[in-house]
Every structure is written in C-alpha cells, then in structure tokens.
Amino acid sequence: MHRPSHPGNVGAAARAIKTMGFKYLALVQPRDPDVLAHPEAIALASGATDVLEQAQCFETLSDALASTTLALALTARPRDLGPPSCDIRQAATLSHAHLCSNTSNRVAIILGTERTGLANEDIALCQRVCHIPANPEYSSLNVAQALQLAAWELRYALITPDAAPALPETGKAETPAGSLPASHQQVQDLIQHWEQALIAVDFLDPAHPKKLMLRMRHLLSRSDLTRDETDMLRGVCTAMIKTAGATPN
C-alpha cells in the first residue's frame, strides 16, 4: 500500500489478505507513522492482527519492491504511457505462471493512496498495470475492497491442482542462477547506470530529458530481464562511459 492515509484501510487490508491465505503486507510512507498500532487499524484487522504486526514500512516504493521479480500496479485510470495493461484475472494467471517458473520469484500487488491512486512515477517501477473491470459509470473502490478482490483472484489462480511452484526433479539440472529473473533492485540499478551512460555519450541531455528515460524505464521494466542480462547491459554501460571519457570532445 503506497502512502495509505486511513488507518482503518490498513487494518481492513490485513484482514482481506489473511482471509485469502496471504500474510505479507508492506506500507510505503503511511500518513500516520504509528498506523500499525492505531486502534482503528487493529479494530478493522479483526483477527488479522498477526498480519498487521508483521507488516513492514518503507521510505520508498522502490525499497519495498527491491526483492520482487514481478510488480503489478492496480489502478483504475488508463495511462497513455506505461507497462502493458491487463485485468486482475489475467494478472493472477500471469502471477501463477511466474511463481511456478521458479521458487525464488516474488510477486507484488501495489495499491495507491486513497485519494489519488498511483502516480506515473510509481507505475514506472512496475512490469504490468492491472485493473478491476467494475461498472464504468461508478468504478470507485475503497483500497481495502480492491485488495480483497485482487487477493481473491490470486488465491483462485493458486489453488488449481498444478498451482504449486515447480521444484527441482531428481536428476534434473537446476536452473543456473544467472538465468533467474532479475530482482526489482537489479533492474533499477541498471536503469540508473543506463541513464549515466546515455548522458556520457551525449544521447541524453539531462537539462532537457523530455520523456526519454521514462520510455527507457518502461522498456527495461517490461523486458523480463534475467540476472545475466542485467549484468551484461551494465557492462555495456560501463564501456560506454569509459569510451566517452577517453574520447576528446
């Protein structure tokens, strides 16, 4: 939950995910720094206080997503520029496949603040945008209600007979670590390095960036990069910066 402003919604969110079998709740910059101990949050958690007590708070959304390999931004507003869009059921199916592909994969559903939702900068940190196909004439949902629906769709996708994440079979070679999906933090480090390289070769003017880096961010975020691929591209960045420094202007 990104910048939640109402303690009751945080408590209701804890209850919503626990009823669907989940337990990890992360808060980014909650308005009330003591929201996890707020009486209203505890009251609306209603038996899910264990989820509330174990919830983690982060200073930035990027920090909260550091260990994830697939981030889904839940939003009702269409975006002209951003990651590919899908509905919440398609997102749940995608999450199921992602989790089954490797036991180290991690999926996150991100919800924005109650009043304004997620900003474009927040969505740029995600690999997909997803929406709940509600009544187009009145699609407003409370964040805890939206989370309940998202958690239900994820649970429904994960309780199918083949839902258990694949485990290594006897005599079968394990997937090389470099072939595993890059974490959110690894991708963000690559994007920062890529920006430095583009500036070094005079492709990007930092004084007039326009939408170049935003487009680059969306490109790299949706590319499902592996750890080896991020290392390779960072090597390219290092070579670009080195070459630019050795070339007379």
From TrEMBL:
GO terms for biological process: methylation. It holds the Pfam family SpoU_methylase. Keywords: Methyltransferase, S-adenosyl-L-methionine, Transferase. Belongs to the class IV-like SAM-binding methyltransferase superfamily. RNA methyltransferase TrmH family. The keyword Transport does not apply. This is RNA methyltransferase. InterPro entries: Alpha/beta_knot_MTases (IPR029028), RNA_MeTrfase_TrmJ/LasT (IPR004384), SpoU_MeTrfase (IPR001537), tRNA_m1G_MTases_N (IPR029026). Residues 2-151 form the tRNA/rRNA methyltransferase SpoU type domain. PANTHER family: TRNA (CYTIDINE_URIDINE-2'-O-)-METHYLTRANSFERASE TRMJ, TRNA/RRNA METHYLTRANSFERASE. The lineage of its organism: Bacteria, Pseudomonadati, Pseudomonadota, Betaproteobacteria, Burkholderiales. GO terms for molecular function: methyltransferase activity. It comes from Mesopusillimonas faecipullorum. SUPFAM superfamilies: alpha/beta knot.
